[in-house]
Amino acid sequence: MSTTVNTNNTTNNAAATATGSSSADLQNQFLKLLVAQLQNQDPTNPMDNAQLTTQLAQISTLSGIENLNTTLGSISGQLTTSQSLQASTLVGHGVMIDGSGILVGADSSTTPFGVSLDNASTTTTVTIKDSTGAVVRTVDLGAQSAGVHSFSWDGTNDAGTAVAEGAYTFTMAATSASGANVVSTPLQYAAVYGVNTNATGGTELNLGLAGNITLDKVRQII
Questions:
Q1: What is the distance between the alpha carbons of residues 61 and 70, in angstroms, rounded to a whole number?
Q2: What pTM was computed for the model?
Q3: Helix (H, G, I), strand (E, B) or coil at 177
Q4: DSSP, residue by residue, 130-170
Q5: Which domain does 81 fall in, by range?
Q6: Rounded to an integer, what distance in angstroms lies between the CA atom of residue 46 and that of residue 172?
Q7: pLDDT single digits (tens) 71-125
Q8: How many helices (DSSP H) and strands (DSSP E) are in the chain?
Q9: Domain boundary among 45, 68, 88
């Protein structure tokens, strides 16, 4: 009975002096408890070897996970830095993003527009409208392969007259050889003015009035 009491007291003292949650702290706690238990264990009821092995394996696993997390954190930081450097090369260039806007300048110059097709089409038609919703130009783009395509508009209406300066919108319609509709996503042009870091540490492109977007939203670089 005396031996048991001394064992409990020694174990409690060892546990009280070792606190923490990291693998190193747990290892220190375990070793102190192990030494205390070996010094004071009951000879008639020795420590279970299987339990000791399990505890050692758990500590080793925790240490490995901590090292893995540290390594992954370092890799993530390097990838973020690399992504920012790559994104900076886009400053001054144009990109195609999801959207249906076209801008017409005073000299009838226009921003590019585009489409992303899920499948190949045999007929592809773009309809351009002014700010009131009136159709000003309909263009047959013919057959197009699946993927991203960009086009330019000469800034004239169906009568061949230059349209007024301002903002226009467009819609796309595409069909396959069987006559079925092909899923199409309209794309608009935006200029890249800078590179930002968002609240989560990710890299974003500053597109001015078009807002900020992440790199995965860029469909094409002009």
A1: 14
A2: 0.63
A3: coil
A4: -TTS-EEEEEE---B-SEEEEE---SB-TTSPBPPSEEEEE
A5: 2-88
A6: 80
A7: 776 665 556 566 667 778 889 899 999 999 999 999 989 999 999 999 999 999 9
A8: 3, 12
A9: 88
